């Protein structure tokens, strides 16, 4: 059976609601992402609960700090037994290398480590406020090269950059893309968006999807239909 390509972002503020959604799933349907909101509210125990149910869990805390601090945080995250963790690529190569080494020396060295490039909520105008004379594509490419140089497993980017990146980076290098919206779905604060099937056709490894699934009247039906659309 093919590994699930959808990572559902469990951005709930209520543990029971999240767990009753998870109770309708099984690990062959999707992976799960725990982000800053749920981790801050419910902590490592919530993450361990999902891991104990057999799900691949992406702990999305986007660490961005000095190398020593990020390394220790990544080791602690890996030791929760999660499938994947992330840092910000703009933290630089020494930071990313320190994070990778800390995971390799942890009790769960198989945890994948990826780096966030340019947030999918940023468009050209927002990026220009932060850095001069660079397009989102150019900045993603630049941070992607640094990430590979540091030896990480892949990056977080938007699916809009995937086709360009796949000209240089082989399928083993993971492209994990939030900002996924089925046709007609509300983009919300996401700017660089794409539909699930277009994203997969562009060479994306995993789709991160939150609100289009979690805010739906029937989240499992939406997830199932996305799975069909990319099968
Ligand atoms: O690292 C992430 O997961 C992430 C990076 C990024 O550039 N953009 C982005 O939206 N995310 C996360 O992906 C999820 C997207 O959720 P929805 O916009 O609700 O589908 C959220 O949990 C974000 O925190």
Layout of SSEs?
Blueprint: E1 6-9, H1 15-22, E2 31-34, H2 36-52, E3 57-63, H3 67-78, E4 84-88, H4 93-104, E5 112-116, H5 124-130, H6 136-149, E6 154-156, H7 162-166, E7 174-177, H8 196-201, E8 206-209, H9 211-214, H10 219-230
Parallel strand pairs: 1-2, 1-8, 2-3, 3-4, 4-5, 5-6, 6-7, 7-8
This protein binds orotidine-5'-monophosphate.
Give descriptors for this structure:
single chain, about 230 residues, alpha/beta, TIM Barrel, 8-stranded parallel barrel, about 15% strand, binds orotidine-5'-monophosphate
Write up what this structure looks like.
The structure is a single chain. 42% of the residues lie in helices and 16% in strands. It has helices at 15-22, 36-52, 67-78, 93-104, 124-130, 136-149, 162-166, 196-201, 211-214, 219-230, and strands spanning 6-9, 31-34, 57-63, 84-88, 112-116, 154-156, 174-177, 206-209. It is globular. Helix 3 runs parallel beside helix 4. With 231 residues, the protein is an alpha/beta fold. It has an 8-stranded parallel barrel with strand order 1-2-3-4-5-6-7-8, surrounded by 5 helices. The protein has one domain: Alpha-Beta Barrel (TIM Barrel). It binds orotidine-5'-monophosphate (OMP). Orotidine-5'-monophosphate binds at residues 9, 11, 35, 60, 62, 86, 116, 119-121, 156, 178-179, 188, 190, 208-212. Orotidine-5'-monophosphate binds next to strand 3, strand 8 and helix 9. Keywords: Decarboxylase, Lyase, Pyrimidine biosynthesis. Substrate binds at residues 11, 33, 60-69, 120, 181, 190, 210-211. The active site is at 60 (for ompdecase activity), 62 (proton donor), 62 (for ompdecase activity), 65 (for ompdecase activity). Residues 5-226 form the Orotidine 5'-phosphate decarboxylase domain.
């Amino acid at each position: 059976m093919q590994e699930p390509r959808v990572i559902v972002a469990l951005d709930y503020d209520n543990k029971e609601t999240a767990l009753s959604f998870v109770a309708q799933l099984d690990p062959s349907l999707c992976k799960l992402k725990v982000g800053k909101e749920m981790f801050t509210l419910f902590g490592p125990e919530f993450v361990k609960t999902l891991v104990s149910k057999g799900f691949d869990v992406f702990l999305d805390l986007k660490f961005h700090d000095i190398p020593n601090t990020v390394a220790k945080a990544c080791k602690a995250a890996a030791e929760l037994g999660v499938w994947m963790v992330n840092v910000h690529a703009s933290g630089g190569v020494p930071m990313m290398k320190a994070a990778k080494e800390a995971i390799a020396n942890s009790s769960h060295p198989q945890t994948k480590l990826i780096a966030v490039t340019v947030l999918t909520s940023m468009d050209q105008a927002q990026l220009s406020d932060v850095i001069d004379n660079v397009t989102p594509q150019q900045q993603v490419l630049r941070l992607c090269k640094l990430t590979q140089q540091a030896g990480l497993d892949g990056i977080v980017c938007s699916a809009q950059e995937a086709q360009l990146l796949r000209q240089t980076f082989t399928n083993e290098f993971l492209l994990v893309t939030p900002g996924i919206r089925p046709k007609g779905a509300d983009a919300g604060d996401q700017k660089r968006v794409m539909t699930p099937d277009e994203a997969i056709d562009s060479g994306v490894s995993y789709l991160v999807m939150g609100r289009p699934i979690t805010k739906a009247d029937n989240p499992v039906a939406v997830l199932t239909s996305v799975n069909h659309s990319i099968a």
